[in-house]
Amino acid sequence: xxxxxxxxxxxxxxxxxxxxxxxxxxxxxxxxxxxxxxxxxxxxxxxxxxxxxxxxxxxxxxxxxxxxxxxxxxxxxxxxxxxxxxxxxxxxxxxxxxxxxxxxxxxxxxxxxxxxxxxxxxxxxxxxxxxxxxxxxxxxxxxxxxxxxxxxxxxxxxxxxxxxxxxxxxxxxxxxxxxxxxxxxxxxxxxxxxxxxxxxxxxxxxxxxxxxxxxxxxxxxxxxxxxxxxxxxxxxxxxxxxxxxxxxxxxxxxxxxxxxxxxxxxxxxxxxxxxxxxxxxxxxxxxxxxxxxxxxxxxxxxxxxxxxxxxxxxxxxxxxxxxxxxxxxxxxxxx
Amino acid sequence: xxxxxxxxxxxxxxxxxxxxxxxxxxxxxxxxxxxxxxxxxxxxxxxxxxxxxxxxxxxxxxxxxxxxxxxxxxxxxxxxxxxxxxxxxxxxxxxxxxxxxxxxxxxxxxxxxxxxxxxxxxxxxxxxxxxxxxxxxxxxxxxxxxxxxxxxxxxxxxxxxxxxxxxxxxxxxxxxxxxxxxxxxxxxxxxxxxxxxxxxxxxxxxxxxxxxxxxxxxxxxxxxxxxxxxxxxxxxxxxxxxxxxxxxxxxxxxxxxxxxxxxxxxxxxxxxxxxxxxxxxxxxxxxxxxxxxxxxxxxxxxxxxxxxxxxxxxxxxxxxxxxxxxxxxxxxxxx
Lengths: 335, 335
Hints:
homodimer, alpha/beta
């Protein structure tokens, strides 16, 4: 029986297995410390397409195809595909998946999208309305940079708090049947706006949302942070992760020993000159669907809590002087 | 018991009632033929805000508040709110709902958003994970026009196939308990791209998606179009509606007698000079949550099928020469 635990957390009564997962990344990500765990490293960040925008869609399409192959399933076996991305009107997703022939549910959760996708993909299975769902998302450094910041060719200087948008896509096939890693709990975030206005410091804008969602998860499930072998955030980077750990202590939860952040993991931060770390929908997606789920299969982790965070502004609202609302969604994955 | 009927249609085993609904519109919509059915008509399209972008969010916030009041429920009674809009990164939604304090799931379905929201809001209830969900969306003529087309002040000429974006927001409270109108079936669309590249003819771009989803619904449920008192599309307008009816006949389904389109209903098309009709996420949302659900309560309709359609491009992809992918999601509502 599915049941609600408090306001934000849902406990899934029916088993929802992660049947397969895949991560496809660009050249820079392929040179980072997790390179061995990605299913494909693409040297041409344009993926043979005529624009970065279409290239990002091609990353999604490729991740979807590899995930299906690893699950030994066809597109026709998928009841729903759930995805979204950072491009205006989520066009990477729509162009990338326009030939997929799978009932599609479009999401916008900024960099929290991978976990929103896993959350709703899991709900559809646990509700009895799906046997299999495909959950994915992507980001692309070049399509994000030109849309949110400056033209690439301009070579704008980056601030020390800036994060590098991951080029890549991660995809997971969820299934009613299977073995191994299961999604057991979903904690859905609220929109939170703490008044941060610095668009070059996303970690600070998003950390309070992660604090809110993680605290809700611990309160509502009655679990301590120690229950989990790993508490993984999406892309808070170095600045946001420090804020998170401090703010969590004020809420009465110490996560110093078992916290890590995808934004701190995918690049060699000093060697690859990425300032405060990595970001983008593809950051949590590729680190989770590449590295972390493999580590679970190896037995490194048995219980993890993954909270991705998204900054919900756009460049126009920031120019208009608005602060940056944020959100964080979490799922618990256990073997 | 929830069950899947074929590939795209889900039959909800648990009752999901539309407990309350509200529609808030701008001045032009308030001068149209449905004016008596809206909960609020706002003479200031800026809603007292400093930008059209924020004004659109204020429309959502107001529609949400009125819907809650009519349901005699508080924000704290809502398990989830599901919304999205047409602004880049869905900022109308994020700024409009940032104080709502309800677990939030962000959607992007372009003008199909209202039905995507009702679909997932209903699934969350029928899965046992929610007692109440709030489903809404909005659009705003001015925020859409400047983002997708030309600055308002430029006064660009409109083509005969162009549609007028509705200024307004529609909201519905779905609930496990209640009486009257219920969501019984959900038919989820696939992304479809038939190669249309004319950004001023959205009806033509979106009609094939509606054909695909409506045909799937009839095939998978075994129902004839005659089963429904009304088959309502979201915003195909005059051009798209004619295409729809023709294309449906080729699929073997005659909907000439019971089809209508929200884009043909909200304005006095000739008198208000809106060319091929209305469009925007707010079109289906306000016509459904204002007019149609009231008519169901009056007994005019007992069984309706509502299919909203969304065009999934952005202005950049069109400039890059890409065609326009589209999607259509449908829900069956019965008393």
